[in-house]
Queue: 3 jobs
Job 1
Amino acid sequence: MKRHLLSAADLSRDDAELVLTTAAELRELADRPIKKLPALRGRTVVNLFFEDSTRTRISFEAAAKRLSADVINFAAKGSSLSKGESLKDTALTLEAMGADAVVVRHGASGAPHRLAHSGWVRSSVVNAGDGTHEHPTQALLDAFTMSRHLGAGKSGQSLDGRRVAIVGDVLHSRVARSNALLLHTLGAEVTLVAPPTLLPVGVETWPVETSYDLDGVIPKADAVMMLRVQRERMNGGFFPTAREYSRRYGLDGRRMATLQDHTIVMHPGPMVRGMEITADVADSDRSVIVEQVTNGVAVRMAVLYLLLGGSEPAVGGEE
């Protein structure tokens, strides 16, 4: 793997499969009474979050701690950043602290790239979500979850030929972009389903199909991923009403009944129940939404371990 993980496009198929294989080994730790490994003992991981986050920040913190790394959580609110300190000065502070990896979430697209290529830090940089741009570890955990349910081939991980529908607010979704890139790399066929107003300019250059017709796409899908409508990033009327959006692009019990028997339902969270997904679907046997969270820790453990160049096997004889 490269030194940084900034985009799903950074990952070759071999890189992605290495992360998934390593995550599968580490996932077994979740079922052990003692969930810690000494693989990154003595290393320091900084979580640098300029945007609010619960799931992703806690997931990275748990991942680093389970590998025995020291973790520093750095939230922009209440720090010198709220007093006007620049990204550069913050980076220099982290460098002085001896950070080995910096996990960055930022509201501006491209901020993690700036940090990685500025020369301000020598540490590995992991993009934990930048603006509406990308969220590569979310795409990896989504692919890992799909491979556990739909995988084929010798490794049991191949998604070749699997059909994935990603539905909803694609325009504002960094998850959709990263998933489109990574799933294509892994051989899956992705269809984005959204109203025309919620598809980004230039989507025709993505390695995906697009559709405005949810009912025409989901009966053929092996996985259906629902996206939250990100009202906080909207300043105009992207659809007439919430009720109209739900009627045309929400996943309810009636639509769930049209899915194939093996099809799984996913959501990167946080969910708006009753908007893009109804409670009965979110809590159904088809839903792997809670499992995605568990898998996220294993995948982020794998990413940190591989980026920081663990010299021993990630999972040895430790109990």
Note: Strands lie at 44-49, 70-75, 101-106, 124-130, 163-167, 189-193, 209-211, 223-226, 264-266.
Job 2
Amino acid sequence: MSFRTIEWRDDTVIMIDQTRLPGEEIYNTYSDFKAVAEAIRGMIIRGAPAIGVAAAMGIALGARDIIADTHDSFFRQLENVCDVMARTRPTAVNLFWGIERMKRVAEANRDKKLPQIKDILKKEAIRIEEEDQTICRNIGKWGATLIPEGASVLTHCNAGGLATAGYGTALGVIRAAHEAGKNIQVFADETRPWLQGARLTAWELMKAGIPTTLISDNMAGFFMSRGEITCCVVGADRIAANGDTANKIGTYSVAVLAKENNIPFYVAAPVSTLDLTLSDGSKIPIEERPASEVTHIKGIAIAPAGVTVRNPSFDVTPARYISAIITENGIVKADYLSGLRRITGS
């Protein structure tokens, strides 16, 4: 990778500012947890796995700065840090997975001195970032087996290195197929209203030297109907126990079109994205974002002032439209209720 999405360096968190891409490759430095939380909320960093890493690193920063004479005081303040992180974005379950993992590590080391606990939390956050890169490469290896030679792959939103600590989930599958020598090309949906496909996915794929065609969201059905799409691969922000999957708004439409045109539709995500406590997708909370994301592009109005706007950031694709779910532990097809539990060992 020729860029780093997020890293811990010199007791600060460094993130590439995704709101500035593709025009500028700018890296921001964060030295306190509230700034990290705001970066998550403001989509300077986005993508479910990357958000999980950012939350963990933000908690490590928050723990480092806690001033406490007793363990009880330290843990009360640490809980407040975690609460701030939890209020940033509601849909991506990796955020809460990262928070809970940091809490468990802190509790498991409660008998240690406070400086030791702070150091342990820092090391755990760094470990989560390193693990994510390994996980994504394993997702890529499994998923590449589903991509045929000469495939034209449609992807929606951005599930690449920018959405993870590196390599990517959906783009990890594409990247692994490309690295295996398969002659493939990618169709990238622009992904309104935030244009992650146009700004981020196309940028990543071009950096990787993978042939890429950018299309607007409403063109997907046209190219499918003409036989120009071989399969679809997308990421996920939360997957319910029955396989229903929340991903960027517009994913459901792509899945329905793929089903109509007999095109395989694959979801690539780490096990940490599974939320087996939810029976189905109707239980997944859906984030609604500001109206300005729909009415304006880079500050320029594209809609009449005062128009009523709805801006859900995600939709839920029912499991019946999903051909397979690809994780670092393997591929699950058809019977998601038992298959997803099997790969998690639950």
Note: The domain at 138-344 is CATH 3.40.50.10470 (Rossmann fold).
Job 3
Amino acid sequence: MSNSNRRPLLAKLASIAGVIIGLAGVAFVVRTLLTKRDEVGDAFSQLNGVTLIASLLLGLCAMTLIGFLWTRMLVTRGHDAPPRSALSWYFAGQLGKYVPGGIWPIVGRAELAVRGGVPRPDAYAATGLSMVTTYLAAALTICLGSLLSWTYPLVGILGFAAFALGFLAFSNATLRTKVLTVLNRVSPRASALTEPRRLLILTVTHLPAWILMSLSTSVTASAFGADIGIMHMFFITSASWLAGFVVVGVPGGIGVRESAFTALAGEALTPGVAVSLALASRVVFIAVDLLGALVAHLIARTAPSTKT
């Protein structure tokens, strides 16, 4: 079987596996809700709605930062991407993650940039680079959270070792060529990753977004009266989001993120509170995506036309 024929087959198998894992995650969450329904009911009865507004604003800041960094990637490629317009492309594209398939956040964001005048190859390259550095930053936050909270410290130690080895390998021209040859079989946009120093800088600049997302989840936890350390939340939030991202074919990582969050928070919270917090956090970030898309669209409409 040729590489061109093998790629769609592998993508289809990965998508099927992702759907199965997602359904298993949903089943786990539903089972927890049913078996712990009294505990879940008590948790939601204590929910402080005002606190959720603060959580939503923190989440909105996190997503706006990621969108702004993506905008800068377009600009550094020499394209006109005014923040007011580009952020509307970003947030509208974000809504694509709720469509089954896993590729729609990339396609949606990139195609909106193309409609805004960015050449298609650069739009997709910048979007792919944004996704890679965003989730590399998530992995980095997992390592930091695991060590600072001393939760699964081995994860942090091994993770930082993997980052160091990966950076050293990618900095070597010969090894980088071999890595890109492999990556090019998956995506022809892999050439966007050819600058190790820039890749590292972009990864580090995404860290504040994950800190804000973790703070948002911590505030949501306080709305339930749950007591969980912020450093521990760095680990749990980033790990659950990363799990939802790597399992392809599941819209927005639904089920996967919640089950991962519930399992990881099980040591600090009771199962009922953990699953309640996971679901409430999901609702908060859906609201973030919808509010961000609405506000960004309204702001973009006030932007002066650049056409002559």
Note: Residues 3-301 form one domain.
